[in-house]
Design goal:
Order of helices and strands: HHEEEHEHEEHHEHEHH
Radius of gyration: 29 Å
Shape: globular
Helix content: 40-55%
CATH superfamily of the largest domain: Zn-dependent exopeptidases
Bound molecules: zinc ion
CATH architecture of the largest domain: 3-Layer(aba) Sandwich
Number of domains: 2
């Protein structure tokens, strides 16, 4: 009888040890599997979103306004293609992007420019394709900026737009990098008070991506590889410009 009680007690003690060891093993496994799981990524807070610069991308023309027509292409379709590719490159660089239009629709120029203030854009890029009325020889890329913002842009920004010489810097960066990426002829940057850029409430440029009137360039502009190079070059220019801005004016994700 005494022997049976001792044996029972021993069995109980052993069982407790086994349970404890099992629990420990389970804990170790649980810990390992938890640490090997990917950490949940929290969505960026409203404050962080505010700090990520927003680029407003404008595909020129649209709807009843086709823009230039030559060599079987219509400008409004090419600008939308390049603008979509530009958005992809800018987003890949960690920037926020809003498009003025995402389909074949008409938008007045002042409406496009006003979107810069509504979205608090850090930069505005309008995509166009050039034509040369005097012949078919002209080719290459040129980027326009408006040194003098319009009165409405100055009003919209409470006077800040009057003090921004930054559009020329943005134009220089975009022109440099888009020409490097495409090896297209560099026609330089030009100061012109086009409505869509002069009424923008942030640094703004209009890129003429090539001449539709030049048959060789018209063929390139239709080519997806060339469109990619245009988009990549413009995106690099925008990125360099934003990175060069004084600390605190814009915050760019490291890339
Ligand atoms: Zn145009």
């Amino acid at each position: 009888m005494k022997f049976r009680r001792t044996a029972l007690l021993l069995a109980q003690v052993l069982a407790s040890f086994a349970a404890l060891a099992g629990a420990c093993l389970a804990l170790v496994w649980l810990e390992n599997s938890v640490t090997s799981l990917p950490r949940p990524t929290l969505p960026p807070s409203a404050g962080e979103m505010q700090k990520t610069p927003l680029v407003l991308v404008d595909a020129g023309h649209g709807g009843h306004d086709g823009g230039a027509v030559a060599h079987g292409s219509i400008e409004k379709h090419l600008t939308l293609e390049i603008a979509r590719r530009l958005r992809t490159h800018l987003e890949a660089a960690g920037l926020r992007v809003v498009m003025t239009r995402e389909k074949d629709e008409f938008l007045p120029l002042d409406t496009r420019a006003a979107l810069t203030a509504r979205h608090g854009a850090a930069a505005f890029v309008s995509i166009h394709i050039n034509t040369d009325g005097s012949g078919t020889a002209a080719e290459g890329i040129e980027t326009y900026f408006a040194a003098k913002p319009s009165l409405s842009a100055i009003r919209q920004t409470g006077g800040k737009a009057a003090k921004r010489p930054a559009s020329e810097d943005l134009a220089a960066q975009v022109q440099k990098h888009v020409c490097e990426a495409t090896r297209a002829e560099n026609r330089g940057i030009k100061d012109r008070g086009y409505v869509v850029i002069s009424q923008a409430a942030c640094p703004a440029v209009l890129v003429e991506c090539g001449f539709l009137t030049n048959s060789a360039e018209a063929a390139r502009l239709k080519d997806a590889t060339h469109q990619e190079k245009l988009a990549q070059g413009i995106a690099t220019g925008v990125k360099r410009f934003l990175q060069s801005r004084p600390a605190g004016s814009v915050v760019l994700a490291a890339k």
